[in-house]
Amino acid sequence: MLSSVVCILKDKIMKINYEFTLKDCNNYVRETLFMKRFFVYFIKDNLLRAIIVSLVLSLWFCYYLLNLNIVSIVVCFFAWLIIAYIVWGLMDYCTGGKNLYKMMNGLDMKYELTLENDVIKRKSSYGEISFSWNKLKGINNTKKNILLFISERQAIIVPKRIFETKQELDDFWTIVQENYKNHTT
């Protein structure tokens, strides 16, 4: 596993080399599921699927097994809606990291992340991408990751496991907080 941290606090520059893993994907999905910004999307994504399946199942169930009346259709619809929504929610929660990792299959998961005073740079074998601090939508320090949100649903994920000492982690978080605060207010 590739992991190194180079810290130059005097100029508020930090460079990190790390490899993103399946475990990091799983941690990210589990930690972000109940964050407000993701929970809203989770509800929207799963609700439409659940409504369609519930409607089909309730009509089928009422047509073949019960007498076809509006009360039985409505009751069946809401029963199937709750069941479908819970099942899809649990499936997303349990397999989300694996699905995210599969989508990233074939991509280079080895990153060099550089924090500078005015920009964040992430480099891999595919190239380099830069984000100015004032374009970040938010930052979050979770139990296992530090998240730098580049949109409402996407984040640069920095696993805390890559830091060898608590001091390196604290220095990183301090730089993130200061730059985010200085460029967004």
Could you characterize what this model shows?
It is a single chain. Helix 1 runs antiparallel to helix 3 and helix 2 crosses helix 3. The chain contains 4 helices and 8 strands; from the N terminus they run ββαααββββββα. It is of the alpha+beta class and 185 residues long. The mean pLDDT is 77. The strands form 2 sheets. Strands 1-2-3-4-5 form a 5-stranded antiparallel sheet, with helices on one face. A 3-stranded antiparallel sheet has the order 6-7-8, with helices on both faces. The chain has 2 domains: 93 residues, PH-domain like (Roll), CATH 2.30.29; 74 residues, no CATH class.
Can you tag this structure with a few keywords?
alpha+beta; 2 domains; 185 residues; 50% helix; single chain; five-stranded antiparallel beta sheet; three-stranded antiparallel beta sheet; 8 strands; PH-domain like
Give the SSE map.
Elements: E1 3-8, E2 13-19, H1 22-32, H2 36-64, H3 70-103, E3 110-115, E4 119-124, E5 127-132, E6 138-141, E7 145-149, E8 155-159, H4 166-184
Antiparallel strand pairs: 1-2, 2-3, 3-4, 4-5, 6-7, 7-8
